[in-house]
Write a structure and sequence with these properties.
The protein has 5 helices and no strands. The protein is an all-alpha fold and 140 residues long. The longest helix is centred in the first third of the chain and has 33 residues.
Length: 140
């Protein structure tokens, strides 16, 4: 591939997106790591204030890692990324629309995790749409 072929506006947009996603991965990993260290130092007090933040950061981290895998693929193009982000937004929207936000388990921790996952899915919808907008800000 020539230098000119690698410097197309499409490729530049994907490279910018890749750098942004890499920063978000580092950010989510940092949140999880510092939160876990805080939990280790003072579990009782920290669990009340940090557990939700750590849980949601890990859910978002999974999303960003998947986007990063796609962006790192040599065959990746703008259409593939747009398809993935639209599909993710639609899938998570279906999850939010058709899922009860409150768990119905006899296990309180499971119900709490269910609620946090529900809320994280709403965040991922926004993240996917924002990433999509970074690729084609005027078209979408």
């Amino acid at each position: 591939m020539t230098t000119e072929a690698r410097n197309t506006p499409e490729r530049n947009a994907l490279n910018d997106l890749s750098r942004y996603v890499a920063r978000q991965i580092l950010r989510m990993e940092g949140i999880a790591k510092s939160g876990m260290e805080t939990l280790t130092d003072n579990f009782i007090d920290s669990f009340e204030w940090q557990a939700e933040h750590i849980f949601k950061a890990n859910i978002k981290l999974e999303f960003f890692v998947e986007v990063n895998k796609l962006l790192c693929d040599e065959e990746c193009n703008e259409e593939a990324v747009k398809f993935y982000l639209r599909h993710t937004a639609e899938h998570k929207t279906d999850d939010v629309m058709h899922t009860d936000p409150y768990g119905h388990s006899s296990n309180g921790a499971s119900n709490l995790a269910h609620r946090w996952r529900y809320e994280a899915n709403k965040d991922i919808i926004h993240l996917a749409l924002n990433l999509l907008d970074r690729i084609t800000p005027d078209a979408e």
